[in-house]
Amino acid sequence: MKGYLALDVGGTKVAAGVVTGDGAVLSRLRIPTRDLRIGGNPLARLIVLGQEALDAAGGRPPAGVGITLPGPVDRRELRMRAAPTIPEFEGLPLAGALEDAFGCPAAGDNDANGCALAEARFGAGRGYSHVVYLTVSTGIGGGIVVDGRVFRGAAGASGEFGHQVLLPEGGPLCDCGNTGCLEALASGRGIAARARLAQANAPEGTAPRWSRADLTAEVVAEAARAGDLLALRVWQETALYLGLGIANAINILDPDVVVLGGGVATGAADLLFPSLREVVSRRCMPSLRRSVPILPTALGADVGLIGAACLAMET
Amino acid sequence: MKGYLALDVGGTKVAAGVVTGDGAVLSRLRIPTRDLRIGGNPLARLIVLGQEALDAAGGRPPAGVGITLPGPVDRRELRMRAAPTIPEFEGLPLAGALEDAFGCPAAGDNDANGCALAEARFGAGRGYSHVVYLTVSTGIGGGIVVDGRVFRGAAGASGEFGHQVLLPEGGPLCDCGNTGCLEALASGRGIAARARLAQANAPEGTAPRWSRADLTAEVVAEAARAGDLLALRVWQETALYLGLGIANAINILDPDVVVLGGGVATGAADLLFPSLREVVSRRCMPSLRRSVPILPTALGADVGLIGAACLAMET
Question: What's the CA gap between B238 and B187, in Å, rounded?
């Protein structure tokens, strides 16, 4: 069985591992992203990590190396077009260095497309030909996989489900500069911001005593599970917004399945999935409502590594 | 040059013609849809019309026959799954009858996908690889063409741009049963309904004296061109809703070009295009804003015929 070297570079963590052609993870190593900077050459450190992952899996040369990156990627040279969380990589062509270091072809893409491919091939989307993948964490991203390949659009920028405008007038400001985007409403930060606002507007004595500075989606989820009505309403609204975003994606793309991942969606699956499915079944085109399953991710923490390997297999 | 027999069946008009492989229309005949019923067998009458179109182009046997239909189509047997405007065709398999009558392969799809293909191959989308087509008339439909082929989704129901929900809470009721859809807001009927509402809510003496019963998007367009402020506001809102719908489609699909057709968009192009382009450039993901041109259709009244021929060429 051929092994692919997978590099999953995130804003906070970096993983390297060897993944087989059928999606089995033979080795995995993880370090904080900031540790890439030790020694002053993040790319050189990443290559060392990759070599360690190969050694841990028996040392055989890889059939390919795949990398997922936390931002938009020019795929030809594996050059990040913007890299706010790892500015050392912005504009740096990675393909040549990786190919030289590991003696095999290199491929890569942004993390959302990698995860979409991983879930479509080996995760919750396995067996479906048209897969829409959404990730809800700090932001909201996504990817589209058709017949085992990422549908990338004209400039490799498709699947920006998080930047659908759901509130035409007003709505919170989004990082993209727009207002009323799904991401500004239903990402981890969006949820925290709405909870903060709800707290501020609640009548004296009725709001939970959240510390406004530390307020996260997780804190709001705990409060909802403890029965706090304001927190429950925040999650209900979140399910409405995510459900509408998913319904719109279904109306446009007509997928077989929608897979929902990311820290926020996974961590609050109990609060989100039932109401979200209800919203989709009510707000989607009747002919499309039929039975598009909305499933949680199935690959857990390995999704990024498997996604990186899938990108290497795709070439 | 091979000729394709094209049949464009609409809710009010039916056209038949011969179209060459490079999109030139060699013959065209048009009758009202209700005249298909004369004689009691609409399919037989349609076949006669097709034969007349072939005769008018010189009588050579066609390389294929293509048909566009006003509703969702099961493409294998060319069976309309729903046909509100031509109930005689609902559930009737057309492929066998057309193949037998004309001695060539038959292909077809709903009209939006046909028009999308025609504009992508021979119209405003020519030379672009990823084309999004929206039609704004009585309703709002659309199609997606990638590398010269319709992107149909899992069940042939992609491109329902009109049923994006733009108003999460409230908003007018849509024909699909949902509320707040783009179609309910910005189709011909949606525009007339909003104008009627604006008229009803305007202070005494300030609203134009439209007859509420006959109010159409065209009447509102004429009033706007004459400087009526209420009508101008209705068109500005229409451009906002359509612009957001197009921005969302760009965010999800990342096309090279958006082509906008249909009676309402074409008839009020002067009122729509400038503000609509401004909305898209303001409300799209910054990385996608770049320069997606938003163009009016280029094929005029022949778009349906050329679309039907394109479907025949696609097989």
Answer: 9
Task: Determine which helix (DSSP H) or strand (DSSP E) holds B129, and give its type and residue range.
Answer: none
Tens of pLDDT, residues A20-40: 999 999 999 999 999 999 999
Those residues with Cβ within 8 angstroms of residue B44's Cβ, 6 or more apart along the chain or in another chain: none
> B217-225 and B188-201 are packed helices; what angle lies between their axes, rounded to 10 degrees?
60
> In this complex, which of B168, B285, B288 lies closest to A241 when CB atoms are compared?
B168
Per-residue confidence (pLDDT) for residue A289, from 0 to 100: 59
Quickly count: other Cβ atoms within 10 Å of residue A266's Cβ.
17
Contact A177 B152 (CB under 8 A): no
Tokens of A258: 């929608």
Tell me how long chain B is.
315
Global pTM value: 0.93
Which residue, among A95, A101, A159, has the nearest Cα to A130 in the 3D structure? Answer: A159
DSSP class per residue in A232-288: HHHHHHHHHHHHHHHHHHHHHH--SEEEEESHHHHHTHHHHHHHHHHHHHHHS-HHH
Q: Is A266 on the interface with B (CB under 8 A)?
A: no
Taking the Cβ of residue A118 and every Cβ of chain B, the question of whether any pair is shorter than 8 Å is answered with no
Read off the tokens for B111: 């009209």
CB pairs under 8 A between A and B: 129
Q: How far is A275 from chain B (nearest CA, A)?
A: 15
Residue ranges in chain A modelled with pLDDT below 50: none
Residue with tokens 């498709």: A158
pLDDT value at residue B288: 63
Task: Return d(Cα B261, Cα B246) in angstroms, integer.
Answer: 13
Q: Which of A132, A114, A113 is nearest to A257 (CA)?
A: A132
Kind of pairing between the strands at B73-74 and B79-80:
antiparallel
Q: State the burial class of residue B254 (Cβ atoms within 10 Å of its Cβ: 0-12, 13-18, 19+).
A: buried
Is the Cβ of B249 closer than 8 Å to some Cβ of chain A? yes
Q: What is the pLDDT of residues A81-99, one digit of tens each?
A: 988 889 999 999 999 999 9
Q: What DSSP assignment string belongs to B233-300?
A: HHHHHHHHHHHHHHHHHHHHH--SEEEEESHHHHHTHHHHHHHHHHHHHHHS-HHHHTT--EEE-SSG
ipTM: 0.92
Which residues in chain B show pLDDT less than 70? 288-290
The predicted structure's pLDDT at residue A26: 97
What are B128-186's pLDDT values in tens digits?
999 999 999 989 999 999 999 999 999 888 999 999 999 998 899 998 889 999 999 99
pLDDT-above-90 percentage for chain B: 84
Rg over CA atoms, chain B: 20
Q: Which of A174, A106, A109, A108 is nearest to A140 (CA)?
A: A174
- Structure tokens of B54? 């072939």
* Contact criterion met (CB below 8 Å) for B64 and B44: no
